[in-house]
């Protein structure tokens, strides 16, 4: 899948199972301020576990730079209030990990359990495959049981747990769980999940 094909696929309008209509589009520099507003409106408990502090303008600027250099590809969902979620696949420029991508997904509390996360995840899986990613990784703390369950439903399996590896925004050290998914053959599984 080339950038031209991605531009042919996005933006798109999606109707969620409850009838809500959202727009999903490729993220670019014009989404910077809306993404910053989304992050700054997240509840404190969500911010505890973000890998990067998205409430900082410089972090969003780095994200946009990664998109522009091709190290990240992101889709962002909007309703009439602004950004309501995103999914991104980030690739490390190190040659020996170029086939790997790190998956990051976040959805506004108002849109959780409404199908938006499934739509974003399905879209970013297709994008990851199209840009040549062979294996997706997801990182979360050991006490993020809901996130682990969601990734397990997608077919991710735990690869490692690193003790006291990360520190949350309050300075508390936590165990890091690394989960992975071999992206080949994902299409059938996504079709089954979206039907749920």
What does this structure look like?
- The protein has 196 residues and is an alpha+beta fold.
- Helices cover 35% and strands 32% of the residues.
- It has seven helices and eight strands.
- The protein has helices at 3-9, 32-41, 44-47, 57-69, 116-130, 145-153, 186-195; strands spanning 12-15, 21-26, 72-79, 82-90, 100-107, 135-141, 157-167, 173-182.
- The chain has an eight-stranded mixed β-sheet, sandwiched between helices.
- Strand 5 (100-107), helix 5 (116-130) and strand 6 form a beta-alpha-beta unit.
- Helix 2 packs across helix 4 and helix 5 runs antiparallel to helix 7.
- The protein is globular, with a radius of gyration of 16 Å.
- The model has no long low-confidence stretch (mean pLDDT 87).
Uncertain parts: none
Distance between the termini: 27 Å
Number of helices: 7
Strand content: 25-35%
The biggest beta sheet reads: 8 strands, mixed
Helix content: 25-40%
Average of pLDDT:
87
Rg, rounded, reads 16 Å
Walk across the major sheet and give the strand order: 1-2-3-4-5-6-8-7
Number of E-type strands: 8
What order do the SSEs take from the amino end to the carboxyl end, as H and E?
Answer: HEEHHHEEEHEHEEH
Instruction: Classify the secondary structure makeup into a structural class.
Output: alpha+beta
What overall geometry do the principal axes of the alpha carbons give? globular
Short description:
By secondary structure, this protein is an alpha+beta fold. It has helices spanning about 5-10, 30-40, 45, 55-70, 115-130, 145-155, 185-195; strands at about 10-15, 20-25, 70-80, 80-90, 100-105, 135-140, 155-165, 175-180.
């Amino acid at each position: 899948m080339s950038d031209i094909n991605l531009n042919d696929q996005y933006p798109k309008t999606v109707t969620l199972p409850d009838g809500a209509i959202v727009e999903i589009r490729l993220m670019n520099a014009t989404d910077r301020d809306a993404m910053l507003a989304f992050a700054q409106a997240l509840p404190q408990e969500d911010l505890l576990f973000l890998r990067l502090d998205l409430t900082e303008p410089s972090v969003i600027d780095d994200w946009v730079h990664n998109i522009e250099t091709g190290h990240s590809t992101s889709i962002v969902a909007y309703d009439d209030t602004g950004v309501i979620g995103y999914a991104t696949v980030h690739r490390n420029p190190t040659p020996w990990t170029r086939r790997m991508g790190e998956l990051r997904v976040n959805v506004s509390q108002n849109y959780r359990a409404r199908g938006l996360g499934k739509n974003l995840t399905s879209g970013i899986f297709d994008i990851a495959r199209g840009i040549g990613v062979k294996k997706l990784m997801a990182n979360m703390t050991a006490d993020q049981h809901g996130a682990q369950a969601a990734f397990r439903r997608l077919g991710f399996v735990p690869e490692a747990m690193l003790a006291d590896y990360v520190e949350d925004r309050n300075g508390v050290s936590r165990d890091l769980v690394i989960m992975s998914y071999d992206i080949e053959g994902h299409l059938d599984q996504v079709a089954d999940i979206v039907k749920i």
